[in-house]
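User: I need a structural model of DUF3558 domain-containing protein from Lentzea fradiae for a docking pre-check later this week. Nothing fancy, just the predicted structure tokens so I can convert them on my end. Input:
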Amino acid sequence: MNRPPHGPYQQPPRQGWPPHPPQPPAKSKAPLVIGILAGVLVLGAAGVAGVLYLGSHGDSGSEKRADRLPAACGNVSEAALAKARTTNPNGRGSSERKLAGGTRTTCAWSQTKGVDGSGLRNTEVIVFQDNENAGDEFERIVAQNMANTQGTPQQKPLDGLGDQATAVLVESKSAFTEMSVVVRADDNVVEVDISGWDAGFFGNDRPDVAELEAAARGLAEEMIAKL
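Assistant: Understood. Predicted structure tokens for DUF3558 domain-containing protein:
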């Protein structure tokens, strides 16, 4: 009887059954790492964008003050001030002085928090009453506005407002913009200055010029009508 040679017992493989099933190749972790990094970058960018947006759209107004302004400042209505987006009276920026040639009154307003929106606006109305040289004063104020070095002043006449009326627009290299309307009616001269900028998506934008002009003209009309 023939016997197999001595040695460890070996069982022949079963047909159709490989002794060790093939192992799947190891998956690379690179896509997962890249995905995590991309997510972090997106969240970081979104966070920065959110901070910039909230910063530019923050309410720049202050709580409503009860400052008393000179009597002549009451010639303009709350509605006209709301159109200029400056309903907060600024007593520190307002004054009244008797001059040799009449009376000079300065009225100032800023933004009210929660009322006048984002961006920045400031309004100043200067009134020269009973000025013997009102014509010369009008020309002096217009020339002073045209000499503004913060930008390139542009002047245009305004019809239907007092005896003489001119608007001067100054746009700076930044978003800061100033609109001045100067009016003479008899021996009174009124200068209305509205300045500021609008909130853009991530920064400041220039205000709409037509909006500024309409607001400044409205204040000038009300002031002149009651002098």
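Before docking, keep this in mind: The radius of gyration is 37 Å.
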